[in-house]
Amino acid sequence: MLPIRRHPYISFTLCSILCLYPFMRVFLPVGDEGTLIYDAVRVTQGQVPYRDFFEVMGPGTFYWAALFFKLFGITWLATRIALMVTSIASAFLIFFLTRRLRTRFDTLPAIFLLAVLFGHAWPSISHHGDSNLLALLSFAAFVVWIDKRWPALLVATGSLAALTTCVLQPKGILLFLAFLMLLVVLCRKEMGFASYVALLVTGYIAIIACVLLFFWTAGGLHDYVYANFVWPLTRYSDVNSVPYGLGIDEFYWKSWIQSFSAAISPAVAYIVAGILIIPFLIVAALPVILPTIALCNRPRAFSRELLPYWIAGWALWLSEIHRKDITHLVYGSPLLIILLICLLSQLRRPFAWTAIKVTAVSAIALAAFNVCLTLTAHVKTETARGELQMFKKDPILGFLNTHVKPGDELFVYTYSPIYYFLSGANNPTRYSILMYQINTNAQFLEATHSLEASTVRYVIWDNLVDSKNFRTFFPDYHPPPKAERALEKYIDQNFAAVYQQQNIRVLKRKTGVPSPQKPCAAPNLRSVANEGTTVRAMVAQGH
Fold first, then answer.
1. Among 394, 439, 443, residue whose Cα is nearest residue 419
2. Domain containing 239: what range?
3. The pTM is what?
4. Per DSSP, what are the bridge partners of residue 133?
5. Tens digits of per-residue pLDDT, 47-83?
6. Secondary structure of 256-302 in the HEC alphabet?
7. DSSP code of residue 227
8. How many CB atoms lie within 10 A of CB 254?
9. Number of structural domains in the chain
10. Is 162 within a domain?
């Protein structure tokens, strides 16, 4: 017989698997999933991130997904198994961290967070989701260490924070600093304080040193440092400055009103949408709501038990605020949502109980709505990586199934790398995504040279970045005049359109165009003046 205290965790895990399965079967072509899983394929094939292909995400997610490819093959099913493991483990940790605070609403934070993640953030493999899993593991190890004082737990805390850094750099660094701050606040008067700090720092530095050593021995340390630290500090904010809470209105409210009004009366549509939007408003208002509630319950709000949730919770929130849209705010809020439910449960006031009921009803309603929406995805699509369930047919996938064989070269421009994975094709360049203001001129030049040296037959050209809708996601995106776009000029000169669907065109290499040849010795493009970037002399090597 299992101890009774284990039963809630087993029950929660089994229920989570049943509830999350409908989401796992659906393919949503959103976010960075295409980049992450195709780069995981490259890792599986022996390529080294940054040295052999350029990305700005930390390497952790590439290797995490590659692990499942090694175990289950390079298939769509393997990606869903990876996503299920990450989602279940994250929900379990949120349940554990809530339960230890004795809120009486143990499952509410997990339901709330999964409900607000669906759509534009999940279910898809994401470096935000993977980093949250590692961050929650690290935080769980820390709070258990506070209770048990086992030295190995502090080493694990530092090591897991370092692994978080390897997935999402700001999150791991800020979390590590939060743990140092907590040791100072909670343990500075204890005799073992210095050893506590040493254990935490040792765990963190050991993992970081191993990662740096790996890239150094692989000849990719310079590329790793540039892509993970130099590039984000110099390029990311150019196009990712957005209004706070971007997406609540555009992605959810307007979409719901339009859809519901077509099926029910406008008045009822506004009521239903008003209930469903509440969890997103709570996430956006956390910086105001939490201090306000804390002032109403000052004796308990900053107790020794809750202080770790405050400091580590705000560290996670700050790590996602580099882009202030609702998706990033949701990924930054898991510990703060737990803290919110705990503070409300501790207040013996009518408004607190009402707030919990409103939060619970809206979160459960949103989660149920998401499940119902997911069950309407009945379009089956065969791909080189397995069968997909989609909401609507994708003609581009149908074209790739009949015209591109696994192992063929394919170039997808600018923002749909999922087609590399689903078609089994190889990208002849080092870039799964190429966007002006984000990528440098030298990187566009290198991609053009790679296309010249390749035998790529088809180009998938996604013109979404030139549409008005794209400005909703990237309000500060301003591409150069068309006359200055060298890569577009090359594609237009050498490829002709054979199919078009809305913003996406399929182009085929023109007949009569000379076949690409290996160029003779070319100058090494690794260092380009005034670009501050690394560029490979792939043309000179004939790759």
1. 394
2. 4-374
3. 0.91
4. none
5. 999 999 999 899 999 999 999 999 999 999 999 999 9
6. HHHHHHHHCCHHHHHHHHHHHHHHHHHHHHHHHHHHHHHHHCHHHHC
7. I
8. 12
9. 2
10. yes
